[in-house]
Design a protein that fits this description.
Blueprint (H helix, E strand, L loop, with lengths): L2 H22 L5 H21 L21 H47 L10 H13 L10 H11 L6
Amino acid sequence: MTQQSDLERNQELQELINMAKERVGDLLSDAEIEEVAQSVLEEMEDRNRRFRGDGDFQDLEDSEEKPRKRGRPRIKKEENDRVKELEDEIERLNQEKALAEKQVLRLRFEGLVNRWFYEQKLTPVIVNRDDLVNYLEGLETGTLQLDQDETVTTFLIDLLEALPSQID
């Protein structure tokens, strides 16, 4: 440091000490006030060295300590984090809802097919119970998986052909 900057630094330090004595002189000793003023001045100088001119801090590669921006940026980050948490929670709830709706649909089809088997409208000889439930569920949800030689109606045609004749 030059003699000019040493003089300016000492003046700033003395101003800080005087201001602190006016405000908290009866609470702290002169040594404590001087120590606090010294640390405040060092922090101010450190910030001035790191401050660029465009309103942002420089990244210091040598320094482990990064300056903390105060005020709105931290609040905005906390708000963004909270929004992200809420979005994740909404996504999880939507997935749970979709799974529950799929399970309710499957239970509805299982109940319907079980009733047909109970009433003996269908038997295991005519159609496999699980295959029929899977077919109905696939048709309803649009997730029906077919082999290459099958169409949507193949299963239904095979089922109808397997039904016994109703005419005596």
